[in-house]
Specification:
single chain, mainly alpha, 3 helices, 83% helix
């Protein structure tokens, strides 16, 4: 355990940020899963709607620093490719 006051504060701050990041990542994963389920069911309308929600969440996560910019772009690209592959 840290003895210095600033180190103790950093531990608390990191814990708070970790919880926030986990919540955001969990939300993104849930929305991505909804898109993948819609794609698997070949439901174009649901997949398109779910894609929009997922892209918004991924972009927000990227802007907050939860995901790197290129990681977010890769996730969005793969989801868009999957939705566009539906006949």
């Amino acid at each position: 355990m840290a003895n210095i006051k600033s180190a103790k504060k950093r531990i608390k701050v990191i814990e708070t940020k970790t919880l926030r990041n986990k919540a955001i990542k969990s939300k993104v994963k849930t929305l991505v899963k909804k898109v993948e389920v819609a794609v698997a069911a070949s439901d174009k309308d649901l997949a398109t709607k779910s894609l929009k929600d997922a892209v918004v969440a991924i972009d927000k996560a990227s802007s907050k620093g939860v995901y790197h910019k290129k990681t977010a772009a890769r996730k969005v690209g793969r989801l868009a490719k999957a939705v566009n592959s539906i006949a």
